[in-house]
Amino acid sequence: MAVNRIGLLTSGGDAPGMNAAVRAVVRTAFVNGIEILGIRRGYNGLINGDVFEMEHKMVNGLTGRGGTILYTARSPEFNTEEGVKKAAKNCKYFGVDAIICIGGDGTFRGALDLAKHGIPAVGIPATIDNDIACTNYTLGFDTACNTAIEAIDKLRDTMQSHERCSLVEVMGRKAGHLAAYVGIAVGANVILVPERPYDFEKDVVQKMRRTRIHGHNHFIVIVAEGVAETEGGSQNIADKIAEETGVDARVTILGHIQRGGRPNARDRVTASRMGRHAVEILRDGKVNRVIGIQGGAMQDFDIDEALAMEKDLQETMYDTARILSLS
Ligand code: F6P
């Protein structure tokens, strides 16, 4: 199948590095004589025909910009058969031979739907959750970790001065990769993630008491968004901590600050490599793939297979956090 024109969209939660991937796709396509049609606001743009021709000049200086110039959205209409049909029809109308979609698992499910309606697709993994199983790394994760670390380092200063406990909620509704990495990096006393059940008395209260015996006068507790939701909110957890330990516990929800900002070196470079790889496999006739990076090498997987894979927290990460927090 000859690919002359590729539709390009970003979808789901934005992530630092998305723009660098957009740039890489546009530049690689230009070098290969392929046209790029930019699609605004994810699958919504495909349904509504919100598209524009992308010239290579439009992506100048984009590697270092956060967010996505294509805008992003979660599209309830695309979750309907009607919506997918409309999107596929528009692809044909605009002469789009294939789609490159940049986002997370919801984005790839959308790509699979399009593929089933005859529009080939390739996915580039970008989410600060790092929860795509076919790749060791998803765009945005490292920058988001660093954003959270910088904020928590500041919190630690004030917690130390006041001898308080800082409960920090980081993003991740279903995945605790961000919480685990950030927790290890800031030397958290407690890390709570959705993938691992915990016992409040043993894993939080007793741990804090033990830490105090070892001379600590302040505490950092990292809670993933998904755990906070299950517990009726981070404030509830902080109130319980204060009640059980007598330590003043303050809540900080880092929220969307984690998704913004200039991508760091890892995100810029990985995005550039993934964007290039996505265009080149389409050029070479490979379709319906999700790009991944493993052991530093670019790879690609069948979308179906990629979506069926599961990614658990690395046990070594969890163990490292446990040992270093003296438990
Ligand atoms: O998937 C990325 C993510 O930031 C999750 O960690 C979080 O649960 C979700 O998006 C929040 O999405 P929204 O910005 O739409 O509320």
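^ 6-O-phosphono-beta-D-fructofuranose complex. The mean pLDDT is 96. The pocket of 6-O-phosphono-beta-D-fructofuranose is lined by residues 13, 104, 127-129, 171-173, 225, 259 (CB under 6 Å).
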